């Protein structure tokens, strides 16, 4: 096969504008730096919000705990009063039936 005349390995003359590329990269870097600063500011804001929310949650949990304790105390008091009322009704019933005080004490024990 016949060869073509001239060399195919000629160096290509490419003119690259490095100043333009540098300017593009610098503007991209500045945009990324601004975005990073914005994200950092957003994170700081979120951290302060998180701290406030955690404090509010802790306060609410403490209030719930105190209310549960008060409820348990009130329930215990109501149960005790119910027992006392039941004991009194049983006592009145036994007295109405004519049972002696000694026999009542024996039944209570």
Automatic annotation (TrEMBL):
Keyword tags: Coiled coil
Coiled-coil residue spans: 29-97
Name assigned to this protein: Cell envelope biogenesis protein TolA
């Amino acid at each position: 096969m016949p060869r073509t005349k001239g060399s195919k390995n000629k160096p290509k003359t490419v003119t690259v504008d490095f100043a333009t590329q540098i300017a593009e990269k610098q503007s991209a870097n500045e945009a990324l730096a601004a975005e990073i600063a914005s994200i950092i500011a957003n994170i700081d804001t979120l951290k302060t919000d998180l701290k406030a929310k955690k404090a509010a949650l802790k306060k609410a949990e403490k209030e719930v705990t105190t209310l549960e304790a008060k409820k348990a105390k009130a329930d215990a008091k109501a149960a005790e009063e119910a027992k006392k009322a039941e004991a009194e009704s049983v006592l009145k019933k036994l007295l109405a039936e004519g049972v002696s005080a000694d026999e009542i004490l024996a039944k209570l024990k």
